[in-house]
């Protein structure tokens, strides 16, 4: 397997290769109680394949959740698929676009009414790292011309609706060095912002809190080879650490902002290291209200990492798809209505 992180220490290499892309073929302090159990709903005619490292984005213009990327060999196509979820079924949407990839970033730009996708790992693994920006208007893809960011994966993106800009942070470059820069996309070009941030970070999660008008970043695997549980906020000018408490340290978790409840929702990830060279898959759920993290006690999707999650504002539900339970990649769809998880689309 190709080397994942360009670091000097053999010990750090062995840890990071396991944690950053596992498995690889070829390449909150007080408790709230929610309704006790998941509920099954109607069956979908078709749906995306089992996968991890994919993106879920809520398209507010077309009022559906969109799934991009995250394929796994040997079922990875040459060109990426776009799937839409309307709350009842998955639909494979038309239009050829970017080459298939995993570990990219994607957001919905509400001002320009298009999905923006950047970077990721292509079919040939880390020798096929992407540095392209694409826009999808619901019908067709357009490749943008600005390539100033360079190749990148393991990064995260969030759309700052108040400022009309996509924010990108962190990840790694094609030389497997840690990226510590902050970039913003205005619809035409990327701008690098010369500000200090959370440091070298991969497999973290980031989302925009529209109530407090802040981008929220939590956890991830640092360039110190450690899991983190710090919470940072970006206000368009500076990064500020706002908490070192709440959820235990983790990576490959996901965040979504529930605009109805006014809280950031966190689910799953991988945490405590286990011997030899493994980790424990998590199934806990937390909410961030801008001041503190609160654990939500509920049954739901179970152990999960490298899944994808977004908030469907039209239906007031957080949607979760796929990932790995530690033994297998899965292709299940779950929805959180603020009280309980419901398994949907089966």
Give your account of this protein's structure.
This protein has one helix and 27 strands. Helix content is 3%, strand content 47%. The protein is mainly beta. It has one domain: Neuraminidase (6 Propeller), CATH 2.120.10.80. The two termini are 35 Å apart. The protein has a five-stranded mixed sheet, with no helix packed on it. Strands 2-27-26-25-24 form a five-stranded mixed sheet, with no helix packed on it. The protein has one helix at 10-20; strands at residues 31-33, 39-43, 55-59, 64-68, 82-85, 90-93, 105-109, 114-122, 125-136, 141-143, 156-160, 165-169, 182-185, 190-193, 201-202, 205-209, 214-222, 227-234, 239-243, 254-258, 263-274, 278-288, 293-297, 308-312, 317-324, 329-336, 341-345.
Write the layout of secondary structure elements.
Blueprint: H1 10-20, E1 31-33, E2 39-43, E3 55-59, E4 64-68, E5 82-85, E6 90-93, E7 105-109, E8 114-122, E9 125-136, E10 141-143, E11 156-160, E12 165-169, E13 182-185, E14 190-193, E15 201-202, E16 205-209, E17 214-222, E18 227-234, E19 239-243, E20 254-258, E21 263-274, E22 278-288, E23 293-297, E24 308-312, E25 317-324, E26 329-336, E27 341-345
Parallel strand pairs: 1-23, 2-27
Antiparallel strand pairs: 3-4, 4-5, 5-6, 7-8, 8-9, 9-10, 11-12, 12-13, 13-14, 15-17, 16-17, 17-18, 18-19, 20-21, 21-22, 22-23, 24-25, 25-26, 26-27
Count every beta strand, where a strand is a DSSP E run of 2 or more residues. 27
**Approximately what portion of the residues adopt beta-strand conformation?**
over 45%
Mind summarizing the main beta sheet?
5 strands, mixed
Count of folded domains: 1
In CATH, the homologous superfamily goes by the name Kelch-type beta propeller
Percent of residues in helices: under 10%
Choose one word for the global shape. Answer: globular
């Amino acid at each position: 397997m190709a080397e994942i992180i360009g670091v000097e220490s053999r010990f750090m290499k062995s840890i990071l290769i396991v944690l950053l892309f596992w498995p690889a073929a070829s390449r909150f302090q007080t408790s709230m109680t929610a309704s006790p159990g998941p509920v099954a709903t109607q069956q979908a005619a078709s749906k995306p394949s089992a996968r991890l490292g994919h993106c879920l984005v809520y398209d507010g213009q077309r009022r559906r959740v969109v799934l991009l990327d995250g394929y796994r060999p040997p079922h990875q196509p040459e060109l990426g698929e776009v799937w839409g979820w309307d709350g009842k079924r998955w639909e494979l949407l038309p239009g050829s676009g970017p080459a298939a990839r995993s570990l990219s970033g994607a957001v919905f730009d509400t001002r320009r009414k298009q999905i923006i996708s950047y970077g990721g790992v292509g079919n040939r693994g880390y020798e096929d790292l992407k540095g392209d920006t694409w826009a999808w208007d619901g019908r067709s893809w357009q490749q943008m011309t600005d390539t100033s960011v360079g190749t990148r994966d393991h990064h995260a993106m969030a759309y700052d609706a108040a400022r009309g800009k996509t924010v990108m942070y962190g990840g790694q470059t094609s030389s497997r060095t840690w990226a510590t820069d902050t970039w913003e996309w205005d619809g035409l070009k990327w701008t690098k912002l010369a500000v200090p941030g959370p440091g070298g970070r991969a497999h973290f999660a980031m989302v925009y809190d529209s109530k407090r008008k802040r981008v929220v970043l939590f956890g991830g695997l640092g360039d110190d080879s450690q899991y983190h549980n710090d919470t940072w906020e970006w206000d368009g000018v500076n990064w500020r650490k706002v908490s070192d408490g709440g959820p235990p340290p983790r990576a490959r978790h996901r965040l979504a902002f529930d605009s109805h409840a006014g809280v950031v929702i966190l689910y799953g990830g991988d945490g405590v290291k286990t011997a030899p060279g493994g980790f424990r898959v998590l199934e806990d759920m937390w909410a961030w209200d801008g001041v503190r993290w609160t654990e939500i006690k509920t049954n739901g999707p179970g152990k999960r990492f490298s899944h994808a999650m977004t908030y469907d504002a039209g239906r007031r539900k957080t949607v979760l798809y796929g990932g790995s339970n530690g033994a297998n990649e899965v292709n299940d769809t779950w929805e959180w209505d603020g009280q309980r998880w419901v398994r949907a689309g089966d």
